Amino acid sequence: MNARTERLDVAGPAGRIEVLRDQPEGQPRGVAVIAHPHPLHGGTMDNKVVQTLARAFVQSGWTAVRFNFRGVGGSEGAYDEGRGELQDLLATVRALAAEGELALAGFSFGAFVTAQAVASLAAGRELGPVVLVGTAASRFAVPVLPADSHDRTLIIHGEVDDTVPLQSVLDWARPQSLSVTVVPGVEHFFHGQLPLLKNLVVRHLRTHG
After folding, report:
1. N or C: which end of the chain has fewer CB within 10 A?
2. Is pLDDT at 3 greater than 70 in this prediction?
3. How far apart are CA 140 and CA 154, in angstroms?
4. H-type helices in 41-108, by residue range?
5. Model pTM?
6. Quick check: 128 and 103 in contact, CB under 8 A?
7. 5-208: which CATH number, 3.30.2290.10, 3.40.50.300, 3.90.1100.10, 3.40.50.1820?
8. Domain boundaries of the chain, sorted by first residue
9. pLDDT digits (tens, 9 = 90+) for 149-205
C-alpha cells in the first residue's frame, strides 16, 4: 500500500494468519483492525473497500492492520461461517493491538465479524471508533452492538446495494436506535465512490478518533 507497509504472520487458532500493517507518519493514535468480505466469494484483505478503510485510518494517524481470514491467501485453516473468523480477528487484536487505543472496522461479511468482535471485547476493553460498511445483515445474524459503542460507531450503506439490501440493515439498526449513513445511488462495492467512502470515515475519525 505504501513504503511503510509490513507483511506479517500472526499465530491464530487455525494456524498462520497473513497480515498487512500500514503505519502512519509520526506516533500512531492507536491500532485499527480491519476485516474483509466473504472468504468464499473472493473476499481478501486486498479488497478495494478494505484498502480504502485502511487508507482512511492511516491518513487519520492510526496504524491500520488488515488480515486474511482462515483459508484465504496465506492464512491457514478453512472457512467457518463467522465463528472461526471471529477468533482470527481476536487473535490478530491480541497479537498486534494488545495495548493502547483499538479501533475496529469491517466490510460486508467482515462487518458482521467486526460486530461480533465489538460485542465480545466490550466487556473487557475500552474500544475506540467502529466502522461498519455494507454490513451483511441480510445474510448473517449480526449481533446487537453494546449501547455505549453507538456514539462512536459509523454504519455506512449504499442506497442501491443489491448484495445486502439497505432495508435489512435498517431493520437491524432500528431496534437499537442506531443511525445509518446512506450513500445515494451506490451499490455494495462503492464503485466510483471510494473517495467519498474514505472521506466519510476520515470525518468520523476526526470526531471520534
Report:
1. N
2. no
3. 19
4. 48-59, 83-96
5. 0.97
6. yes
7. 3.40.50.1820
8. 5-208
9. 999 999 999 999 999 999 999 999 999 999 999 999 999 999 999 999 999 999 999
